[in-house]
Amino acid sequence: MLYKLAPIPAFDTRVAPAGSIEEPRSHKISAWEILLAGLSALAIFTVLLLRLPYRSPVTNILLSTFALGSLYFYLRLRLNVRLPVTMILCLVLSIALDVIGNRYALFSRRIALIPYDIITHFTASGLSFIPVMWLLMQLIRRFGYRLSLGFVTFFSATTAFSLAGYYEITELMDERLLGGHRIWTPRDTVQDLAADLAGIVIAAVCYSLVIRARGRIDDSALDHSH
Q1: What tens digit of pLDDT does each residue of 33-61 get?
Q2: To the nearest 10°, the Cα dihedral for 153, 156, 162, 164?
Q3: Is the pLDDT confidence value at 208 over 80?
């Protein structure tokens, strides 16, 4: 028996600014726009990571500002999603740890017996997980879906770990295509990914518990209000 694939419909989402009581506006996002936005984000992410240790701090700051600014304004102007300052700070700190480590040659040193490389991957991946999950929850609400917190947490963790894995791919691209030297030992990539995964798992547990606690507080406030 043959099945005919149905065409992909445009997503219809109604968005209202936070704290506003105005009638929400309707946004239609086509599959082509989703594809274009995803490819653009991947291209910007790739340019930011390639040659990262070999660029000047000023260049890295400018590229990071462009990347974060593009994300912020696309979400704000196209989807009417306001990225909180705390989420931006999480991403800024993730990039800063890498830039500072390269600037002062900290990746060959240890802090409290722990290699700076491991600390950076653990912390940066954990910090990156938080805005990934926050954004995923916002998009789920905007498009009118309902998913359990556990599923959202799991999907956010796999997304954050995929980004960490792509970071390692850009290191390999630097080595093989651009003449860089970013993979120092045979176990370097595996150790980095293990630290990434550990940071993501801990951040996922902590952040999901915070969200669950906030939900209970909100429910309790509603009950008392009645």
Answers
A1: 999 999 999 999 999 999 998 999 899 99
A2: -90
A3: yes
Q: What is the pTM of this model?
A: 0.83
150's tokens: 């556990």
Alpha carbon distance 17, 56 (integer Å) = 38
In angstroms, the CA 49 to CA 52 distance is 5
**pLDDT band at residue 27, thresholds of 50, 70 and 90?**
low
For 173-202, what is the mean pLDDT? 93
Tell which wins on pLDDT, 122 or 26: 122
CB neighbour list of residue 135: distance below 8 Å, 6 or more residues apart: 75, 81, 83, 87
45 backbone dihedrals φ, ψ, rounded to 5°:
-60, -40
List the chain domain ranges: 28-225
